[in-house]
Amino acid sequence: MSEQPARIEGIQPGLQARGFNSGRPVVDWLCHCGVHERAEGSKAYGLLVRVRVGVCPHRPAEGRATA
Ligand SMILES: [Zn+2]
């Protein structure tokens, strides 16, 4: 018998918010650059408003090549 290696599937870049109905919100943000951030509780709201899907804050701004 052969064992299948564990694979992580179903995770796509973007925001995933859950738990808002339970009073303990959890927001997962997977940036398209691969950085993953998680915020819980009141910080979840802060992350929600801070994140702009499609805009990566983890790298320096591009476009400085031209002078
Ligand atoms: Zn990023």
Your description of this structure?
The chain is of the alpha+beta class. The chain has a domain of 37 residues. It is built from one helix and three strands; from the N terminus they run βββα. The chain has a three-stranded antiparallel beta sheet, covered by helices on one side. A hairpin with a 5-residue loop joins strand 2 and strand 3. The mean pLDDT is 81. Zinc ion binds next to loops.
Keywords:
1 helix; binds zinc ion; 22% strand; 67 residues; alpha+beta
Major β-sheet profile: 3 strands, antiparallel
What is the molecular shape?
Answer: flat
Share in helix: 10-25%
**Which series of helices and strands comes N to C?**
EEEH
What is the number of beta strands?
Answer: 3
Rg value: 16 Å
Bound molecules: zinc ion
Strand content: 15-25%
Which ranges are low-confidence, i.e. pLDDT below 50, for 5 or more consecutive residues?
none
Would you tell me the structural class of the helices and strands? alpha+beta
Chain-wise SSE layout:
Layout: E1 14-18, E2 26-30, E3 36-40, H1 42-50
Antiparallel strand pairs: 1-2, 2-3
Question: Summarize this, please?
Answer:
The protein has 67 residues and is of the alpha+beta class. It has one helix at 42-50, and strands at 14-18, 26-30, 36-40.
